[in-house]
Amino acid sequence: MADRNNNPDAAVKDPDDWVTGDEPPTAAQESYLHTLAQEAGEQVPEGLTKAEASRRIDELQAETGRGR
After folding, report:
1. How far is Cα 58 from Cα 37, in angstroms, rounded to an integer?
2. 3-state DSSP: the chain helix, strand, coil percent, rounded to 5?
3. In terms of Cα–Cα distance, which of 33, 38, 39, 36 is closest to 54?
4. Phi, psi torsion values for 4, nearest 5 degrees
């Protein structure tokens, strides 16, 4: 069994596997998503799920050079 203290990626789950992935995004996700979209000159689609918002955040982080 992997030690999560030595491997931080061990705790990362694919958003498709989240139990709450079909729920609306959190306030923090919404805020960060809008910030990233503004920086990228893009619009945030309405009605995203928590999992969809997470994937879009990852995409926009790569596009804008933010995040990881």
Report:
1. 11
2. 55, 0, 45
3. 33
4. -65, -25
Mean pLDDT of 14-30: 87
Question: How many Cβ atoms sit within 10 Å of the Cβ of residue 45?
Answer: 11
Structural contact between residues 46 and 25, judged by C-beta atoms closer than 8 angstroms: no
pLDDT digits (tens, 9 = 90+) for 23-66: 999 999 999 999 999 999 999 999 999 999 999 999 999 999 98
| Dist. CA 52–CA 66, nearest whole Å | 18
With 50 as the cut, is the pLDDT of residue 2 above it?
Answer: no
